[in-house]
Amino acid sequence: MKESVHPDFSAYDMSTTEGRQATLKAMLSVRDKDHPLACGDILSLQPELLEFDGEGYAEVAFKPQEWQLNGLRYVQGGYLAAMIDVVCGPMSDICSQGQSAGTLDMVTTYFRPITMADEQIIVKVKLVSNTSRVMHFECELLNSKGKTAVKVLNNIMKAKRK
To answer: Is residue 102 part of a domain?
Structure first.
């Protein structure tokens, strides 16, 4: 069985707000297999970091794309959940100083559809609890009118790395 590879944060200073912001921005944009933060292909979702408080709150913008639409011409719910997960994953690494291990559960509630008319989707992620083993995030995906389309409660496990 292949050993899992975790991001290498050694090139980033996560002791400052600016350093954590630079790390989060890199994690949302760099997916080169040789880059130290490579941990999956999210470029197809095209996230754009709008706000990060340096601690546990971030806002990231996405744009709906034709290939994400289902037969009703709504963005498929799985892609909306993936947009939220794309923000939670890097946030969990930032908030745990690189100790996140993976999602334990992700409770997703859908309120309204996202269509191509929603030119910008905003994902807001807030860390509400950070224990020695688990981080709890509350997340919201807003349509272009600022109305809640999806809410997520996400629990991410921590693990000690060598």
So the answer is: yes
**pTM check: above 0.85:** no
**Domain of 99?**
17-158
How many other C-beta atoms lie within 10 A of the C-beta of residue 11? Answer: 11
Q: pLDDT of 15-53, one tens digit each?
A: 888 888 888 887 777 655 565 554 555 667 889 999 999
Angstrom distances, CA of residue 25 to CA of 22, 28, 88, 92, 143: 5, 5, 13, 14, 22
Q: How far is CA 109 from the centre of its chain?
A: 17
Burial of 130 from C-beta contacts in 10 A (0-12 / 13-18 / 19+): middle
* pLDDT at residue number 14: 78
Residue 75 belongs to a domain: yes
